[in-house]
Amino acid sequence: MKEITAFHLTRCPYCIQAKKAIAELIREDPSLAAIQIHWIEEQEDPVTADSYDYYYVPSFFFGKEKQYEAHPGETYEECKKNVERVLRAAL
Question: Is 5 exposed, middle or buried (0-12, 13-18, 19+ CB in 10 A)?
């Protein structure tokens, strides 16, 4: 199983929707709860954040390989689909 490194901002609406999608996906499939997600608040750890290649949050990585980066205007359905893809790949 792969660990996910995820960058977020505390008040970011896209980050909030990604976390909501994760909770919903885990309710739908409890096996996803075993996946380790290491959340990094980019303003609290800018040195680490700057060492990864992304612009928007949330952004999910396996190691330094970007798996998903939100985009402005992304709907909840798009977010959930992308988050699920990453979670399934982590299994």
Answer: buried
How many C-beta atoms lie closer than 10 Å to residue 59's C-beta? 23
Q: What is the pLDDT of residues 25-66, one digit of tens each?
A: 999 999 999 999 999 999 999 999 999 999 999 999 999 999
For residues 49 and 35, what is the distance between their CA atoms, to the nearest angstrom?
21
Q: Which pTM was predicted?
A: 0.95
Residue 62 burial by CB count (10 A; 0-12/13-18/19+): exposed, middle or buried? middle
Q: Which residue's structure tokens are 């996906």?
A: 25
Domains defined for the chain, CATH in brackets: 4-90 (3.40.30.10)
Residue located via tokens 């612009």: 55
